[in-house]
Each structure stands twice: as structure tokens, then as C-alpha cells.
Amino acid sequence: MADYDVIIAGGGLTGTITAQAISHYTNQNAKILVVDRNTEFMPGRKSLAGWVCGDACSKEAVDFMSDRIKVQWTKPEIEHDVKGVMAFSPDKETAIPFDGAGYMLNRQKLPEIQNERCKKMGIDFEYEINLTGLIYDGQQVVGVQGVDNKSKQPFKKTAKIVIDATGVTSMLRNGLQNSTKVEKRIDRRDLESTGRYIMYFEPGQKDLTEFDPDYCIIHLDQDIAPGGYGWVFPKAENKVNIGLGVEKSLLERRNNRLGKKDNVESLMKEYLDRNTAIKNAKLSEDPEDINNNSGIFQVSVRRQNDCMVSGGYIMVGDSAWMPKPIDAGGIGPALIAGTILGNNIAQALQANDVSEASLWQYNLDFIKEYGYKTAGLELFRRLVQQMSNEQISYGMKHFLGNLDVESISKGEHPDFSGLGKIGMIIRGAMNKTVADGLRYTSKENQWLVGHYENYPKDPAGFDEWNKTLHQRLDAAFAKVEAFGK
Ligand SMILES: Cc1cc2nc3c(=O)[nH]c(=O)nc-3n(C[C@H](O)[C@H](O)[C@H](O)COP(=O)(O)OP(=O)(O)OC[C@H]3O[C@@H](n4cnc5c(N)ncnc54)[C@H](O)[C@@H]3O)c2cc1C
Known about the structure:
Blueprint: E1 4-9, H1 13-25, E2 32-35, E3 56-58, H2 59-69, E4 78-82, E5 84-88, E6 95-98, E7 102-105, H3 109-120, E8 124-126, E9 129-137, E10 140-148, E11 153-164, H4 171-174, E12 191-203, E13 215-219, E14 229-236, E15 239-246, H5 248-258, H6 264-273, E16 278-283, E17 294-300, E18 309-310, E19 313-315, H7 331-351, H8 356-359, H9 361-369, H10 374-386, H11 389-398, H12 402-409, H13 429-453, H14 462-483
Parallel strand pairs: 1-2, 1-11, 2-8, 5-13, 11-19
Antiparallel strand pairs: 3-7, 4-7, 5-6, 9-10, 10-11, 12-15, 12-16, 12-17, 13-14, 14-15, 18-19
The structure holds flavin-adenine dinucleotide (FAD).
Residues 10-15, 36-38, 44-46, 52-57, 129-131, 165-167, 171, 194-196, 243, 297, 299, 317-318, 323, 328-332, 334 line the site of flavin-adenine dinucleotide (FAD).
């Protein structure tokens, strides 16, 4: 008999949401273990650098979880309320609001509270375990293994289902042996290298395009944050989470273009120094930030893994590459996926069937709720990454109508299919290229959303579906890549 019904590998943000969701949907009848390499006193830390994150998430996603699994987030894990996110064009002439009202979290505090709650629900924890892989019985995953850092002894525990919530660097996914459907490795160009500071400051020049206590600000700029963006997220009137993300090959291209040798760290420093609304900034030494005030980590910006289950194994959160491709927001999809997964696991345990086919419904449920749009957004992100600052500014100013802004605010790909048609005059070859690019990604997005609506209902149809997806995506990626040449 297995030691547990469910082992959750990785007790970070996603792992603990999922644990609570399973507990909720099984009426606390499942035996659940959460395993993490952190100590009991530093739960949820991503790496030695801390709980590196922009800390922003939408109210809508938190409500999605709270409504279903009856878990509320309040203070102190919510540090500050915001009215939305505002993305500024490089020339700052256009600002697009998206995501609606939301919260700035304290990522160091949140897991402490999550773990307390989990324990009250009867969920077990094992700390300081460095997981290295899965245990198999034939084609079925039946447990996890690694090293207990406390005793330096091997660690092995068995379960009916293992949930991989170990984040973007997941060793379990990388070494997965019982599936040809699950993608194991990520393309380097789908990773952003990102870093941020959490700081107190004195007010400088009042400039709501540089700091706004009510809005999370995003700066699109290929010189400041090539292939990514800079952000200034308020944690209080005088406290900020400020950072940026870049794509490494585009950073190299930018360095060559400008004759510079910047890296993420130097860019972060420059980005802070150039902000005139923030004066005399100092890293926060509050107890709830002290181990977390400066750091760099990676985040994926692609569609979720093409298949997220195999026999006895399921992935969720960053290990499944869930952060949204255009803004790297991973908390929202983690809240949604973790909640959904709780229900899927309850069903599988109830049916006493943890085969790939039984767990398959999770692929479908996540796509229905969220995943249908991510491939189109991945393509859109690739297009924007190829654009110059002039093109981004022009595109945001002239091509974004109210409807597009609305769809962006809902996290959907805007529909540019009518661009240039209805008597619209687009001057200049460069701007025609932008219009062509946007029209193209809109068209492809429509196809991709349709294709995801037809995600196979069971594993048998997957290979055919996936082949078609990759053919279409490969062609689209090549076309968008050529756009920047
Ligand atoms: C700089 C930056 C800024 C970001 N900003 C935002 C933002 O503003 N809003 C937003 O929504 N998202 C943001 N994201 C993304 C967001 O932080 C992630 O989506 C989120 O943390 C994912 O949670 P997770 O639990 O899936 O993974 P993680 O937070 O990485 O947690 C993984 C857990 O697994 C454990 N673990 C890993 N490997 C092992 C192992 N081998 N053995 C045992 N345990 C292991 C870790 O200790 C950790 O506890 C940002 C990311 C970065 C890097």
C-alpha cells in the first residue's frame, strides 16, 4: 500500500494551493504529503535568492480560488491593493490598462500562512528534502525520491499520484520516464531572466508614469528591458517592488546595437536609478522582506506544457510553464490550475484510477478555463519581442482600439484582423510591417484557440493533435522571427 494518496512535490505557492484544493474536494479524506527542500522556517522560497517575484496578482484569480475552495487571502499576505496594471509604450504616449483590480502579495509571509492552514487541514509536510526524481512501477509513477538534507539519507515515499509543483526548474519533469507526450525541456528563448528589488524610498518628482500607489506600472522598452519589460509595482506609498525581465539573446542583440555589456543586474540598477519618482531607495529590512529584498530568477513565457499528465504524475504551476506568455504572471494561472486540479484529483481517487487516461481530464479542464489562449499569446509575445521601440509605440498608439484594450485586459489576444481594411491609412513601411505582423498573429490566434478547443478528449488522439499544433507553430514562429530582420 502506498504511503500517501497524493504527494505534492514542491510546497511553493502552487503546491500549497493544490494541497488545500484536494483537501477541500475530498472533504479532507485524502492522505496528502507536501515535500519541499526548504526548511520549515523558510517555506515557499524559490531559491537561495528568495521568493523572487513581482508579487502582483489579480483579484479575479484569487476570487476564483476563494469561491471554490473557501480559502480567503487577507492581510498580511496581501500587502497592498491596486486598481490594475498599466502598460506604457516606450515613448510613454500610450498606456493600456489590464488585469483589473488586484493585490500586491508578501511572498515571504504567504507560504507561512498557507502552511499553517494546510496543517490545520491535516496535510503532512516533509522539509529539507531535495527531490531528485520519481519512483516507477512499470509505466506508472508511484512515488518520489531524493535526499533528506537533515540526515543525508536517501528519501523515498510512495503515493497513488505525484503532483509536480517544483517550479520552472523541475527535475521531475526533466527526467520523466513514462511519457512521450509531456515535454521535458524548455527552449531557452521561452525563458525570461528576471530580477527585482523590494525597497523603501522617499518621494521624488511626482510622475504617475514612474510610480503610482494605485497601479502596477509596466514599461515596455527594448533598450531598458530587451524582450521583456520593466516594472514598478507599489507596495505602499513609499514602498516598491521594482525590477525587470529580459530574454537573453535579445539582450545580446541590444548590447551589440548600443555597444554595451549590460546584464540583468546592471540593467536593474540602471532602471532604478533612472526613476525620478523614487529617491534614496533602500532595500527593505522589514522582517517579512529581510530574506527577500533583492534577487534574480527565471520565469517561462510560453504556452503550458502540451500535455500535463502521465500515469500517476501531474504537473501544475511553473513546472508546467503556466505563467502567461505576455506578462509572465504565474500566480493567476497557478490559482486557477491548483483549484481545478483539486477537483480532478478527487475524481481520480474516487474512481480509484490514476492512469494517464483517468488524469487526462485535467488537461481539458485547464485549457477550458485558461490554457486555450496561451499559444496565441506566446506567438504575440514573440512578435512584440522582435519589434523596435518605434514600432511598439506606433502600434500601441494607432492600432489599439477600445475592443482590443478590453480583450487585452481580459488576457486575450486582441483581434487585429481588420487592421488597414476600413479606410485606415497606415503611413510608412515600418508601420505597415507592424500592421501585417499584428494581423498575422490575430489570424493565427484564431486558429490556435480553435485547435485548443479540439484538444483530444483522451490520450489516443494526442499525437495527431500535437503534430498539427507543432507544424502550425513552427511555421508561425519562423514567420514572426523573420519580421524582426
Ligand atoms: C522576477 C519574477 C517576477 C515575477 N512577477 C510575477 C508577478 O508579479 N505576478 C505573477 O503572477 N507572477 C510573477 N512571477 C511568476 C511567479 O513568481 C510564479 O509563477 C510562481 O511563484 C510559481 O509558483 P510555483 O509554486 O509553481 O513555483 P515556485 O514558486 O518556484 O515554488 C517551487 C517550490 O518547489 C520547491 N522545490 C523546487 N525544486 C525542488 C526539489 N528538487 N526538491 C524539493 N523541493 C523543490 C521550492 O523550494 C519551492 O518551494 C514572477 C517570476 C519572477 C521570477
